[in-house]
Design goal:
single chain; alpha/beta; Rossmann fold; 8-stranded mixed sheet; 3-stranded antiparallel sheet; 7 helices; 11 strands; 19% strand
Length: 296
Amino acid sequence: MSFSFMMNVAAQEVIPLYPSGAPGLKAGGVVEKAPKEGGITRISNVIRPTITIYQPQRKTTDAAVVICPGGGYGILAYDHEGTELAEWFNARGMTAVVLKYRLPERDNFDNVSIRPLQDAQAAIRYIRKNAGKYGLAKDKIGIMGFSAGGHLAATASTLFDTQVGEITDPSVSVRPDFSLLIYPVISFDQEITHAGSKENLIGKTPSPEDEIRFSPEKQVKANTPPAFLVSTTDDWVSPENSIAYFLACKKNKVPVEMHIYEKGGHGYALKDLGLGPVQSWPDRLEDWLKSRGILK
């Protein structure tokens, strides 16, 4: 099992994604909140999105991963599905980047549906542009997401041809080199979607165009990055989300691996909750990363 690991964190560096202020911020934006409930830090009202770069003391790979915590596009489970994973990667000699992204909060921003993706693209762009500074390879920068963070990671893995929002740099690709999708929300098809995540991102009465645009399984193409997926049959975010993405990758000949466990529910992350086989998913992830030459 992969839940106990020795700390191997050398340094943490917090970088504001938009030093001059986040695009689209309305006057009188609500101050960020970060209460800890049930042992999980739940951040909301992110008006100053950041990345925190976790570098291992003993780096064994020049790869890095941007981690997107979940929370239904309503909060960020920042430590539970963010910093704890960064420490897991650091313990294996890999650089990790925790993304504190803006949520689609209509009181704080205009054009809210693009803001999480804009932040994910900005994070990838920054790491790739500064790869030399951190001893990283520009072609080994992946993205990871949990639940709605998985939707964001999958969206970033399929809508990378266009850089969204006001700040772009066409000279730097925002395509992730691999994606790790853990109990992800994927589809906005009403038959299998997680209704809360969908409504939070694109509203109660979205256009058919937005439903398709923000359904990553409908946006997979030949150059979509290789993907690793985990889900369970008893998850209230239907495992059909993972299956749809898996099948789209398979159809387009994108390398993909999927693990669907019988039991485990939702939101287990790295916690040792006595859930049985699902708790070995980090071992399967480590195997996959090694098989692709991302981990040593």
